């Protein structure tokens, strides 16, 4: 069982961590079946070592430089979604990898905050998509929508991606590997969506705001990113209690950015983007190559605090 701990954990603590999330158990069985198939076919000795990689790994082996760059290894394209062509949310913009040679990709829906539009977070769309994801940055039904409504809209946007989006987009998505994220009330909506749909593979609330403080029902691997100097959703009354309320049996992490205000997601933030991509790759793609950026916990002048359950294979 995963155990909540603040840095620095001991090496023994790392050895004690075991994942219990049902989705990852299913993926383990998938990997085992693949291995048995290869052995049964007499291919075990002929397949190179890289063939043991997880079935959802996409792109080259990650490096610090690659995660800190403004774009990942995949070229991307984008398309607009009119509010008139969807139901349950206000349209938005889809970003997707143009590569069709590596199979399907996981998908993530991202919500802006109170009174904000997608343009306030739009730098995140191509950045995340370029690491091998389909991203929809949504416009909300109204700019005043509260967290519960934003959570429902995030889920409606995911449903649109996998059921009703264009063939070009839909054909690139693995409908079993979906995630949500959002800023401020969109971050509160991210927690709402994760609580309402436990089949999601990951959630990343950014400076989340919500009047509900307990999220004991969340089972989705969740990384909360807060700002030390946030006066709109102070971490002491929002991000920290949100994190603490999620059960330690669920994978979770809390990253607090040194000196950051409530609006840190609205401008390019390398530390946030690096951690966000690593979390999505680890849990949406089940790509253990990204564990090195999450555990042992990251450190540096940009990070005020990091808490975690230390994901482990």
Protein model, in words:
With 313 residues, the protein is an alpha/beta fold. The protein has one domain: Rossmann fold (3-Layer(aba) Sandwich). It contains nine helices and ten strands. A ten-stranded mixed sheet has the order 1-10-9-8-7-6-4-5-3-2, with helices on both faces. β6, α7 and β7 form a beta-alpha-beta unit. α5 crosses α7. It is globular, with a radius of gyration of 19 Å. The two termini are 12 Å apart. About 15% of the residues have low confidence.
Please tag this protein with its features.
313 residues, 9 helices, Rossmann fold, 10-stranded mixed β-sheet, alpha/beta, 29% helix, single chain, 10 strands
Please describe the topology of this protein:
Layout: E1 5-6, H1 11-16, H2 22-40, H3 64-68, E2 76-81, E3 92-97, E4 105-111, H4 124-129, E5 133-138, H5 147-163, H6 167-170, E6 173-183, H7 185-196, E7 202-206, E8 222-227, H8 239-245, E9 252-257, H9 270-283, E10 303-308
Parallel strand pairs: 4-5, 4-6, 6-7, 7-8, 8-9
Antiparallel strand pairs: 1-10, 2-3, 3-5, 9-10
Catalytic activity: a butanoate ester + H2O = an aliphatic alcohol + butanoate + H(+); cutin + H2O = cutin monomers; (ethylene terephthalate)(n) + H2O = (ethylene terephthalate)(n-1) + 4-[(2-hydroxyethoxy)carbonyl]benzoate + H(+)
Enzyme class: hydrolase
InterPro entries: AB_hydrolase_fold, FrsA_esterase, PET_hydrolase/cutinase-like
């Amino acid at each position: 069982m995963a155990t909540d701990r603040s840095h620095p954990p001991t090496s023994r603590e790392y050895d004690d961590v075991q994942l219990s999330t049902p989705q990852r158990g299913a993926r383990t069985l998938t990997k085992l079946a693949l291995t048995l198939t290869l052995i049964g076919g007499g291919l075990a000795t002929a397949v190179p070592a890289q063939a043991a990689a997880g079935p959802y790994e996409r792109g080259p082996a990650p490096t610090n430089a690659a995660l800190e760059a403004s774009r990942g290894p995949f070229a991307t394209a984008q398309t607009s979604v009119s509010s008139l062509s969807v139901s349950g949310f206000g349209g938005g913009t889809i970003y997707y990898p143009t590569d069709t040679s590596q199979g399907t990709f996981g998908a993530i829906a991202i919500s802006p905050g109170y009174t904000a539009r997608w343009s306030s977070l739009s730098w995140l769309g191509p950045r995340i998509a370029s690491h091998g994801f389909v991203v929809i940055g949504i416009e909300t039904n109204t700019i005043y929508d509260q967290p519960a409504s934003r959570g429902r809209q995030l889920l409606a946007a995911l449903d649109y991606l996998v059921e009703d989006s264009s063939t070009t987009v839909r054909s690139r998505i693995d409908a079993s590997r979906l995630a949500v994220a959002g800023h401020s009330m969109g971050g509160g909506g991210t927690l709402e969506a994760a609580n309402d749909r436990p089949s999601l593979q990951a959630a990343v609330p950014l400076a989340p705001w919500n009047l509900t403080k307990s999220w004991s029902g969340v089972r989705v691997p969740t990384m909360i990113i807060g700002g030390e100097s946030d006066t709109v959703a102070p971490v002491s009354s929002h991000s920290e209690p949100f994190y603490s309320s999620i059960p330690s049996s669920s994978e979770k992490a809390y990253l607090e950015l040194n000196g950051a205000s409530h609006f840190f997601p609205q401008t390019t933030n390398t530390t946030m983007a690096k951690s966000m991509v690593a979390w999505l790759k680890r849990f949406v793609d089940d790509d253990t190559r990204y564990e090195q950026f999450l555990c042992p916990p990251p450190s540096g002048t940009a990070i005020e605090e990091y808490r975690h359950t230390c994901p482990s294979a």
